[in-house]
């Protein structure tokens, strides 16, 4: 008798190509099962033995939100290393820990939402910490390295599947889900798309996440750019995952669609494959998909397209081939190698900004005073894991120099809060164990509640001395003597209960508001005032308590006490990543908070040998004229303190380089919502002022000489070589940077543009020859006159040096290219968004699915200029495609108005376009000036006759 065995279904057959296996599995799924796959939390299909799957695991600089893990420097700190090999190794370690953590907790996902490749265009962006650089070339180089580490080296199976965030032109938290980034074609192609494109083309990216904002009037989640650009860059089935809650925003906040069925269908058709909405509850999304199917807005084939992309990722992750998955048994977690790598990354991220008189490195016998609000902190951000190991600057310096040679003063203001009844706020003693926020892990840490197991504050005859810190703009934290921060939980009681400020809505920040003869204390998280009741201190809708603020000791007095007898003073200043600049909140100024300025001044007044170490997620504008030495590092993860101490002691020579321009003043900045880096002269590419510190800047304890520059053009590439020699007396890294510049451009081009770099380690006297191959396409720009790339013939400078402003070698070469040609406006007319210059104009959506139009800002007036328009032998008529109310005035070369086209069609809606015509006489080549008034939208202008 022969036993019958169930044949292996083709989707389980490892010998078949993934595409055939995916087709087979798709054919076996019912419509309901397919609909279920479209939510972030896809359910299991038990009848087929298919497991549940979720998209999304945060892993920006370590596995986040799921409990203890190795914490590496913030992304902007990894960018500051300018070291692609290091960042690849960090990505590899993070992906191995992801696999190891998943083996013991299946809530940990393998589809990692990282890295963030948004360009750091504006330093006040609240999420500056998440990006790598303001430069697209450096950003793509670092992002590519990280994704390669996350993916792994196996040709078939991926260790994790990285998704790039956040597509596209997303640099503001202010009104982030309703604001539109106006991105002209040159900025789109030369700047915002570039970082994504080069990373996707490198082949280690599983997909992207669209951003909350709109671009040119159209939400990113229904952007045609997903199809026109993203999916054209690779043959891989890229997975597009929505950002959390963004599908609902299309109706609820953006009002772009009338119904959620329409919005869901439009997102799916645009290319969104997985919907992150309503947390773990998939019922809303699945109901919307069913409604869209019933209304004929979607077909089952549309669902298949999205699910095929999802399954492509799942197959690559080895889900259906567990016995062949080379990563399945990965157990590397918190290994000695990972700890050493965290320290190496933190060391390489430190940037020496200034070192007058060679104050650094410090001698071994230095008597050191360490002061500042960040001196004994190891801060985490929203996308950090929970620390297993922790090193603060103070701890690192104790270890390196000896506790007997280091004095410390934090510099907080120590205060008492006296009530109107003459009592004081008092923190009761508590027996509860310490708890670290997020240590247990959570799929959504925004839902973590504050502690209620501790007694609320009371009012008592004897008060508790609190450590008050003003983080800027009047935002305060208050900390009890045991180190716990005052916080408010869901019951409204004020307790000393938090290990650090944190959470989606921070519950540990307050404001003192002057009131009569004292202050009201407002809790920022709830917006309520603090009051004193019989059962304890709480926040309440009723009138708050009037407090007298009694300063027991000012921070600068404590600083002066420990600094005067020291050989060197180290001031450690910076930001708390959850306060004044974070996801949901942009900064308002580059200035260092006044509290920390006070401490810096006090230290400098007491001791001229003052070193300022900034530990921050973003640049500051600091007057450093009286400060002889200055360093910057992003929040450096678990080994931050050890790394900083080793740099200060000279065990390691600093070689971090600034990944973005440090501006000298707020006046140097454009408006946060001005995305026109060309017209607004933004970033090192176009900024014409004097920065505080330039892009690429960073000093060393060694000196380096550059020489032997050689260039040649061959095989459609520029080949460059030069030598770098360590002329100092210590082993050190140098970051050699290669820039180019168009010498005689006919359109605005970058002042200089990074095309390559290399971080190289050299012993004293050591010499290295660096070689670079730069594709000639790096010299192209997006020519709006032809809607395509063009290289101008003529001279180009090649510049090599230590920063964008520290150029050591240069040469000029002549490149062939295509000469500019006038716009053939008789044949093609003018696409409204293809202007050369503009003022007072925003780009908006021509339709909800594709195309651009332009409109005056705020419905007022704006002007567009189109250079070198060829009217040939002459035209007699101009035609404008417009919607809405207003007028288009046409003139040539800035002369008198030759034609006016008036539209009065506001009731028809913004997408109801009409053609308006008027007579005009023009011949030859001229600049066309269009002046727009009112609320109209202009899509196209044509000429005929």
State the main characteristics.
eight-stranded antiparallel sheet, 47 strands, alpha+beta, 945 residues, six-stranded mixed sheet
Instruction: Please report the total strand number as a whole number.
Output: 47
Instruction: Indicate the percent of residues in helices.
Output: 10-25%
Tally of separate helices: 18
What structural category arises from helix and sheet content?
A: alpha+beta
Please compute the radius of gyration using only Cα atoms. 30 Å
Biggest beta sheet attributes? 8 strands, antiparallel
Distance between the termini: 90 Å
Q: Tell me, what's the shape?
A: globular
Q: How much beta, percentage-wise?
A: 25-35%
List the helices and strands and how they pair.
Blueprint: H1 18-28, H2 31-37, E1 41-42, E2 53-54, E3 57-58, H3 75-81, H4 84-104, E4 111-116, H5 136-151, E5 161-167, E6 180-181, H6 185-201, E7 207-210, E8 214-215, E9 218-219, H7 225-228, E10 239-240, H8 246-252, H9 260-270, H10 283-294, H11 300-316, H12 336-348, E11 351-355, E12 368-371, H13 393-401, E13 406-409, E14 413-418, E15 424-426, E16 458-460, E17 466-470, E18 476-479, E19 485-488, E20 494-498, E21 510-515, E22 518-523, E23 529-533, E24 536-540, E25 546-553, H14 555-563, E26 568-574, H15 594-606, E27 610-615, E28 629-633, H16 640-649, H17 683-686, E29 704-714, E30 717-726, E31 732-742, E32 753-762, E33 767-775, E34 781-783, E35 788-790, E36 794-801, E37 807-815, H18 825-828, E38 830-831, E39 837-839, E40 841-845, E41 852-856, E42 861-870, E43 875-892, E44 897-905, E45 914-922, E46 925-934, E47 937-944
Parallel strand pairs: 3-4, 4-5, 5-7, 6-8, 7-10, 12-13, 12-26, 26-27, 27-28
Antiparallel strand pairs: 1-2, 8-9, 11-28, 14-17, 14-25, 15-16, 17-18, 19-20, 21-22, 22-25, 23-24, 29-30, 30-33, 31-32, 31-36, 34-35, 36-37, 38-47, 39-42, 40-41, 42-46, 43-44, 43-45, 43-46, 43-47
Helix pairs in contact: 1-11, 2-11, 4-5, 4-12, 5-6, 8-9, 9-10, 12-16, 13-16, 14-15
């Amino acid at each position: 008798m022969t036993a019958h065995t169930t044949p292996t279904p083709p989707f389980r057959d490892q010998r078949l190509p993934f595409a055939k296996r995916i087709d087979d599995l798709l054919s076996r799924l019912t419509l309901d099962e397919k609909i279920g796959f479209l939510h972030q939390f896809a359910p299991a299909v038990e009848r087929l033995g298919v497991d549940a799957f979720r998209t999304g695991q945060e892993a920006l600089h370590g596995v986040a939100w799921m409990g203890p893990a190795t914490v590496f420097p913030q992304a902007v700190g990894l960018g500051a290393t300018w070291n692609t090999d290091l960042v690849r190794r960090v990505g590899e370690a993070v992906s191995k820990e992801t696999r190891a953590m998943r083996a013991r907790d299946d809530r940990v996902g393998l589809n990692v939402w990282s890295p963030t490749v948004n360009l750091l265009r504006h330093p006040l962006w609240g999420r500056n910490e998440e990006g790598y650089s303001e430069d697209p070339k450096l950003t793509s180089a670092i992002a590519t390295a990280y994704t390669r580490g996350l993916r792994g080296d196996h040709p078939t199976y991926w260790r994790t599947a990285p998704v790039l965030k956040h597509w596209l032109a997303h640099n503001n938290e202010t009104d982030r889900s309703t604001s539109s980034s106006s991105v002209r074609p040159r900025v789109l192609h030369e700047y915002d798309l570039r970082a994504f494109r080069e990373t996707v083309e490198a082949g280690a990216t599983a997909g992207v996440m669209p951003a909350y904002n709109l671009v040119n009037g159209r939400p990113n989640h229904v952007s045609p750019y997903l199809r026109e650009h993203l999916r054209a860059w690779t043959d891989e089935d890229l997975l597009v995952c929505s950002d959390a809650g963004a599908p609902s925003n299309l109706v609820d906040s953006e009002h772009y669609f009338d119904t959620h069925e329409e919005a869901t269908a439009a997102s799916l058709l645009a290319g969104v494959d997985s919907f992150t909405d309503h947390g773990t509850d998939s019922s809303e999304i699945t109901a919307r998909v069913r409604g869209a199917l019933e209304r004929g807005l979607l077909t089952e084939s549309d669902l298949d397209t999205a699910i095929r992309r999802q399954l492509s990722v799942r197959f690559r992750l080895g889900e259906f081939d567990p016995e062949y998955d080379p990563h399945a048994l990965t157990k590397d977690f918190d290994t000695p190698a990972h700890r050493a790598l965290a320290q190496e990354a933190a060391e390489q991220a430190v940037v020496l900004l200034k070192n007058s008189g060679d104050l650094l490195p410090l001698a071994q016998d230095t008597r050191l005073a360490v002061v500042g609000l960040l001196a004994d902190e190891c801060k985490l951000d929203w996308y950090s894991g929970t620390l297993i190991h922790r090193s603060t600057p103070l701890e690192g310096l104790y270890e390196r120099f000896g506790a007997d040679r280091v004095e410390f003063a934090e510099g907080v203001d120590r205060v008492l809060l006296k009530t109107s009844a003459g009592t004081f706020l008092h923190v009761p003693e508590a027996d509860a164990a310490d708890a670290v926020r997020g240590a247990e892990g959570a799929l959504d840490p925004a839902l973590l509640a504050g502690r209620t197991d501790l007694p609320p504050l009371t009012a008592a005859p004897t008060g508790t001395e609190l450590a008050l810190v003003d983080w800027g703009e009047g935002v305060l934290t208050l900390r009890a003597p045991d180190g716990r921060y005052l916080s408010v939980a869901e019951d409204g009681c004020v307790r000393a209960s938090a290990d650090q400020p944190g959470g989606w809505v921070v519950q540990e920040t307050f404001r003192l508001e002057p009131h009569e003869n004292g202050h009201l204390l407002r809790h920022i998280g709830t917006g309520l005032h603090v009051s004193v009741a019989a059962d304890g201190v709480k926040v309440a809708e009723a009138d708050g308590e009037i407090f007298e603020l009694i300063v027991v000791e000012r921070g600068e007095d404590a600083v002066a006490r420990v600094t005067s007898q020291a050989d060197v003073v180290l001031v450690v200043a910076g930001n708390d990543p959850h306060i004044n600049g974070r996801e949901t909140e942009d900064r308002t100024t580059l200035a260092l908070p006044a509290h920390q300025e006070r401490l810096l001044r006090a230290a400098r007044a007491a001791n001229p040998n003052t070193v300022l170490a900034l530990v921050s997620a973003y640049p500051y504008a600091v007057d450093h004229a009286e400060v002889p030495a200055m360093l910057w590092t992003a929040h450096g993860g678990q080994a931050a303190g050890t790394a900083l101490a080793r740099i200060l002691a000279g065990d390691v020579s600093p070689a971090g380089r600034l990944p973005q321009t440090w501006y000298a003043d707020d006046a140097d900045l454009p408006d946060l919502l001005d995305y026109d880096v060309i017209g607004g002269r933004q970033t090192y590419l176009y900024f014409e002022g004097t920065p505080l510190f330039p892009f690429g800047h960073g000093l060393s304890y060694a000196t380096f000489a550059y020489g032997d520059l050689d260039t040649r053009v061959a095989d459609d590439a520029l080949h460059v070589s030069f030598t770098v020699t360590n002329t100092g007396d210590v082993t050190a890294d140098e970051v050699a940077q290669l820039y180019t510049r168009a010498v005689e451009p006919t359109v605005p081009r970058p002042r200089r543009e990074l095309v390559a770099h290399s971080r190289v380690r050299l012993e004293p006297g050591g010499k290295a020859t660096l070689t670079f191959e730069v594709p000639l396409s790096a010299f192209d720009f997006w020519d709006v006159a032809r809607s395509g790339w063009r290289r101008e013939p003529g001279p180009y400078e090649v510049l090599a040096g230590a920063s964008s402003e520290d150029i050591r070698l240069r040469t000029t070469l002549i490149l062939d290219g295509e000469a500019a040609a006038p716009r053939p406006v008789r044949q093609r007319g003018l696409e409204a968004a293809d202007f050369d210059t503009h003022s007072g104009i925003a780009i908006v959506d021509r339709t909800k699915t594709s195309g651009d139009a332009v409109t005056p800002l705020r419905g007022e007036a704006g002007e567009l200029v189109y250079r070198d328009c060829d009217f040939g032998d002459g035209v007699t008529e101009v035609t404008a495609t417009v919607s809405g109310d207003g007028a288009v005035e046409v003139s040539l070369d800035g002369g008198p108005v030759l034609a006016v086209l008036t539209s009065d069609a506001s009731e028809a809606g913004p997408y109801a376009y009409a053609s308006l015509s008027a007579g005009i006489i023009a011949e030859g080549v001229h600049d066309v000036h269009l002046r727009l008034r009112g609320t109209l939208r202009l899509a196209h202008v044509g000429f005929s006759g």
